[in-house]
């Protein structure tokens, strides 16, 4: 594809008006840049990562930047160095993110290794068995009430449904849970699960 300088294009040009290139020309320029430099940029990233999957993801991120900033992409022979600069920054961001995730995972593993169970219903008790026997939708709904202590408005936001739908589903979930209970006495968690939401919206 031949790029024609603005000065060489025929046709009138309104004074003071900057004409954007047609969409097809924009796409063609990007496809040309991608086809010409894809392997070189991929090689740059492969030599700096341990995973081919990571390199492929970073390649996609690099060319996403190129697409968004196509007007800033210089013509050859400066195109490839420009793309390497973008890839370098994308890779640096990736490494920072990996470092943060690794540090957080290490910290959490240390904190959770000696931590007690998150909730009593993880135990092998009649109450826990009854809870686990509920449909996943019921378990999530009751968990939002008892453990996250959300009201109906907040639950509606979490689930993406109306408050009225939350009330209806919660009523049905409690009935199903009550039928599954085999223990004569309920612990605090079960009481919280079977009570009405204590902090309903006005």
UniProtKB/TrEMBL annotation:
<dbReference type="InterPro" id="IPR013325">
    <property type="entry name" value="RNA_pol_sigma_r2"/>
</dbReference>
<dbReference type="Pfam" id="PF04542">
    <property type="entry name" value="Sigma70_r2"/>
</dbReference>
<dbReference type="GO" id="GO:0016987">
    <property type="term" value="F:sigma factor activity"/>
</dbReference>
<dbReference type="InterPro" id="IPR014284">
    <property type="entry name" value="RNA_pol_sigma-70_dom"/>
</dbReference>
<feature type="domain" description="RNA polymerase sigma factor 70 region 4 type 2">
    <location>
        <begin position="129"/>
        <end position="176"/>
    </location>
</feature>
<keyword id="KW-0731">Sigma factor</keyword>
<dbReference type="Pfam" id="PF08281">
    <property type="entry name" value="Sigma70_r4_2"/>
</dbReference>
<keyword id="KW-0805">Transcription regulation</keyword>
<comment type="similarity">
    <text>Belongs to the sigma-70 factor family. ECF subfamily.</text>
</comment>
<dbReference type="InterPro" id="IPR007627">
    <property type="entry name" value="RNA_pol_sigma70_r2"/>
</dbReference>
<dbReference type="InterPro" id="IPR013324">
    <property type="entry name" value="RNA_pol_sigma_r3/r4-like"/>
</dbReference>
<dbReference type="InterPro" id="IPR039425">
    <property type="entry name" value="RNA_pol_sigma-70-like"/>
</dbReference>
<dbReference type="InterPro" id="IPR013249">
    <property type="entry name" value="RNA_pol_sigma70_r4_t2"/>
</dbReference>
<feature type="domain" description="RNA polymerase sigma-70 region 2">
    <location>
        <begin position="34"/>
        <end position="100"/>
    </location>
</feature>
<keyword id="KW-0804">Transcription</keyword>
<dbReference type="GO" id="GO:0003677">
    <property type="term" value="F:DNA binding"/>
</dbReference>
<dbReference type="InterPro" id="IPR036388">
    <property type="entry name" value="WH-like_DNA-bd_sf"/>
</dbReference>
<dbReference type="GO" id="GO:0006352">
    <property type="term" value="P:DNA-templated transcription initiation"/>
</dbReference>
<protein>
    <submittedName>
        <fullName>Sigma-70 family RNA polymerase sigma factor</fullName>
    </submittedName>
</protein>
């Amino acid at each position: 594809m031949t790029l024609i300088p603005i000065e060489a294009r025929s046709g009138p040009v309104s004074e003071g008006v900057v004409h954007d290139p047609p969409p097809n020309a924009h796409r063609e320029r990007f496809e040309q840049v991608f086809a010409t430099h894809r392997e070189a940029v991929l090689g740059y990233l492969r030599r700096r990562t341990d995973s081919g999957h990571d390199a492929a993801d970073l390649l996609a991120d690099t060319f996403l930047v190129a697409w968004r900033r196509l007007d800033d992409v210089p013509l050859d022979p400066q195109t490839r160095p420009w793309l390497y600069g973008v890839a370098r920054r994308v890779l640096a961001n990736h490494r920072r993110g990996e470092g943060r995730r690794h540090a957080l995972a290490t910290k959490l593993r240390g904190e959770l290794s000696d931590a007690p169970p998150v909730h009593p219903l993880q135990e092998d008790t009649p109450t826990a068995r009854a809870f686990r026997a509920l449909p996943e939708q019921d378990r999530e709904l009751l968990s939002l009430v008892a453990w996250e202590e959300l009201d109906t408005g907040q639950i509606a936001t979490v689930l993406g449904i109306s408050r009225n739908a939350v009330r209806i589903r919660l009523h049905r979930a409690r009935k199903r849970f009550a039928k599954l209970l085999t223990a004569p006495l309920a612990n605090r968690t079960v009481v919280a699960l079977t009570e009405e939401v204590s902090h309903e919206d006005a």
